[in-house]
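Morning run. Coffee first, then this:
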Amino acid sequence: MLEADGPPVKADAIVVLSGDGKGSRMLRGAELGKEGYAPVVIASNGGDRYARTDSALAIEFAVTHGFPASLFLETSWKASSTLEEARNTVALLRARGVRKVLIVTSVWHTARAGRIYRGLAPDLDIHLVGVNDRDWDHGNWWRSREGKKEFLLEFTKTITGYLHI
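And here it is:
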């Protein structure tokens, strides 16, 4: 119910969803870009911290890990949910003429993100790439307190999405 990712495919763009805070999503997106899966990695923005956008901080993080700044596109929208983030992202993708996109997010977020993006943009060929994180622990989330909290939060968001709350 929470996982729905697959292997990466060649695309027109890579979108790294905001909300990670640890850099795992951004580094995976950067790796895919460097490997030639798409010519641009779009850092989606959820908000800002200390007068800097999440997008700028994520790109800076990737650059400090050896990825070229020219690989990335910064965004500056504010979004407090995956749905708001998707609305902004889809508009940008359409404006750039993107037809096929890789969306990089945490593995436990792939199913819900996929439903949201495909619901908003059935015209786009959308592929999800999941990034494991220590809280998900390859599906062993129940072994840690943080994993249990992350599961409960994502499960709640999934249910409220089905109920349109």
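The first strand starts at residue 13 and ends at 16. Good start to the day.
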